Amino acid sequence: MTAFFHPNALVESPHIGDRTRVWAFAHILPGARIGSDCNICDGVFVENDVHVGDRVTVKIGVQLWDGITLEDDVFVGPNVTFTNDLHPRSRQYPTQFLTTVVRKGASIGGNATILPGITIGAGAMIGAGSVVTRDVPPGAVVVGNPAHIRGYVNTPSVVSDGGPVEPIDSAPDTTPPSRVKGVKFVRLTRAIDLRGSLVAGDVGGDVPFQPQRFFAVHDVPSAEVRGAHAHRECQQFLVCLSGSVHAIVDDGTNREEYVLDSPDRALYMPRMTWGTQYRYSPDAILLVLASLPYDNSDYIRDYDTFLAEVTG
């Protein structure tokens, strides 16, 4: 088994995996490492401190500069621009170039620009022409300039039906059970009269734990992502008191997106659930009840670590 090099390609590196194909006018410097079954298309330039995994596709007109890592099964579309220096000057070089990592299975659309020092999460999708200025969570779909999250791949969306507006709303909940282990979309009691509206929930019933802490998230710019972590032991109960917010829940096997847009709809997240909140409306106030006091060691902030722990 050997790699294929087009006669018009310049391949100086000995570190090219089996069945990898390098096409015309590509130039790969001696220090670069490229895995097996890759497709390096016409006009691609690869510097020395570059690591490319297996089954990676790099389309026409892409330059991979020092400090860039593409993990297995990554797709890089035509004319994607990577950068590795935030303050470039002619003939002035940093002591070390910033590291950019594209995690396993992510795809980058044509003509996108990736700023240096960024990690694009596993399975993420970068829209064509996007300018990515910050880390992208695993599985996120980002578009625009600057890029912002529009959704998540392979993530069904669950939207509250709101229920009938009655003086005492006790209608049965018709929301289907979550596919994410232990997660529940909870319908709280709602009372409405001329004096206003009231929403109530019972601790030990609606809230299946004794809260030890609470916090409220508000004034979040719509492009910002909150959460993006799991807890080893802590359980959480989310209620959007005003406005709306989209909440992603993930147990390592299944992922769903819930739209919290009414204070009588809440989301229960058991321990070892990866949670992400995004698309906050300008008036959103998200109340979170937690089963334990704050403990930094209870947080899992890296998705690969979460997957390893939840499956182990």
From TrEMBL:
Keywords: Repeat, Transferase. InterPro entries: Hexapep (IPR001451), Hexapep_transf_CS (IPR018357), QdtA_cupin_dom (IPR008894), RmlC-like_jellyroll (IPR014710), RmlC_Cupin_sf (IPR011051), Trans_hexapeptide_repeat (IPR050179), Trimer_LpxA-like_sf (IPR011004). Signal peptide: none annotated. PROSITE patterns: HEXAPEP_TRANSFERASES. It comes from the Bacteria. One of its GO terms (molecular function) is transferase activity. Residues 182-310 form the Sugar 3,4-ketoisomerase QdtA cupin domain. Pfam families: FdtA, Hexapep. Coiled coil: none annotated. This is Acetyltransferase-like isoleucine patch superfamily enzyme. It comes from Klugiella xanthotipulae.
